[in-house]
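S.,

As promised, the iron/sulfur cluster run. Input:
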Amino acid sequence: MLYRRFGRTGARVSALGYGCMRFLSRKGAPTWGANVDVAGAVALLHEARQAGVNYFDTAYNYHAGTSERIVGRFLSEIPRDSVFVASKSPVWKMRKPSDFKRYLSIQLRRLGTGRIDFYLLHGLDAESFAKCRELGALEFLEAETGRGRIGHAGFSFHDAPHVFPAIVDSFDWGFCLMQYNLVDANSQAGTAGLRYAASKGLGVAVMEPLRGGDLVRGMPDAVKRGWAGQPEFTPAQHCLRWIWDQPEVSVVLSGMGTRDQLAENVAAASATPPGSLSPAGRDLCTRMQSAYLGLRKTGCTRCGYCLPCPSGVFIPRVLDLMDERSMFPESPGPSMSYSMWLPAANRADRCTSCGSCESRCPQHLPVKKLLAEAHAALTGGASGS
Ligand code: SF4
Ligand code: SF4
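Predicted complex:
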């Protein structure tokens, strides 16, 4: 295993971290729920530690609370200081300032430890960060870091690129966690955000390096052929190595459900110090990136000039999900995100065809038509292709 400095926290973290949100169920199938094969999950965590993984990332809500208990059991079976534990505050549950402290206490109890090494405000976007500030989250982080119940304070991020630097600059964060992979180089925080955070001294952890597996499931033929041209690594390893090649990245989290996945990722991590991809390897990744991005159909650049929509439609996000569906047609993710995570008030069926977005779109996109297609496709109607 290779280790990297985690920004100003000074910690030496393993290049591969364990994302504890995709353990297998008792029937051996992937699950998000609480019905986890606990013994199997704990055994995998031990195996990861033996392979050199020292960063274990969980959250209040993962596996409906079972993930933190599993990590707690693992911690009880090893010297506490032999690993780092990261967990996340469920900011969407906070109603009053004292809630932050109350949830931290619950999490420490579940984990059976007096300290969470890396504690994050979970899934920040512009709106939730504003709410956190109003409720005194930053003062809470300062106080608990002083008390030692939190080692270092950070945040995870899900919003448009322009929101990211503002959050980075709002507090003396030790680190951050961002979604980053071959097809998200220009969305969410993106490569620009990665470099910005690192330049400000933050340790950077990466999540969704394979987009929940979408990058290696049902690959388009062009991508399959491309990866096959450099068979010394698997497609998953190629995708991970593209991230580890970048010196600003400290730790890449992977939600490994099986021993084989763990072994595959450990091998790739151990073979990829920063800057280690050959010109041919980088060129291949760039071509595969273009192959995926070329499947997008809307032409939307997520610039946001069409906002605000008077009817509340979150146009860039809807079109983003439509493009994800084009890139990953076998994935349930885009439809789930549309139905479960995008508030009904922001969905495409709120459009009243006023047309004001189209006159503001620098790409001159037929936004009304695209939204109608997106809604149908993402709710199981027409394909929209
Ligand atoms: S056309 Fe539809 S999406 Fe565009 S601004 Fe008007 S209501 Fe909003
Ligand atoms: S203005 Fe056009 S390109 Fe920009 S986010 Fe809106 S639809 Fe997309």
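Residues 315-378 form one domain. The beta strands are 3-5, 12-14, 16-19, 55-57, 84-89, 116-124, 150-157, 175-179, 203-207, 251-254.

- D.
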